[in-house]
Amino acid sequence: MDGSATPAYRVNELTPDPSVSFDPKIARDYVTYAHRLAARGLVNSSVGGMVIRAPHPDHPDGICYAKPQGVSLEEVEVEDLVITDIPYGRILQGARATTVGHQMNREILRLRPDVNCVIHLHHDETIAFLAAGFQEIRSFSLTYGFLMQKPAHYLPASINVEEDVAPIKTFIQDTNCIIMRRHGFTVLGRTLSEAYHRTCVLVSEVKRNIIVETLCAVTGKSPEYISDEDLAQMGKHGDAVMYPTLVKR
């Protein structure tokens, strides 16, 4: 789906599929990690979201677990969840509409078959840091590069890929994190756990940026950034350091 063709189905069209059923473990994991994000203070009202892809023999792109519109990640429970397809956003199980941001998540999953979880949050400190005039989030820690493994992609405030997914195809292969000015961020992971870890390391790095820049402004010292070259090297060896079981022997 490139944004120009008319889909065969309407987004949020109720098309129950008897071959699709809720996997209790995936549903429980969804709720567990949604509440973990909220416990970290990363959830604002009902905005933001998370999707988990699961394989399905009748759906080449898999199926997608999501929360419905109007339900916060902080409040979501198993019975609230819906399952959609990925190309069109048809509701295969459940009866409530998804958020507008679900089309962004689906497009990411469609374009990145290696990605199985997307987390999108309207993170206060990220929005504030960039609104204060800083152009990017720099790295001061060793964990960020090993976990994120690809550089973040920054979108200007004028581009909202939740509403228009067309630009996503131009950059999504080269990043695991989209920074959306005035909006928040979107983090990708091969697993739910990895997406969560990447989210946590990103918000920690934002916090470090604020602390370092504040201290340097007071003391007159210069921040000691990790170079882009070092980050690239860390990214290449990220699995060996963080996820050795994923390294091909």
From TrEMBL:
SUPFAM superfamilies (UniProt xref):
AraD/HMP-PK domain-like (SSF53639)
Keyword flag Zinc: no
Describe the location of the Class II aldolase/adducin N-terminal domain by residue ranges.
28-210
Q: Show the stretches that span the lipid bilayer.
A: none
Query: Which controlled-vocabulary keywords does the entry list?
Result: Lyase, Metal-binding
* Domain of life the protein comes from: Bacteria
What single Pfam family name could you report for this chain, choosing any that match? Aldolase_II
| SMART domains (alphabetical) | Aldolase_II
What protein does this entry describe?
Class II aldolase/adducin family protein
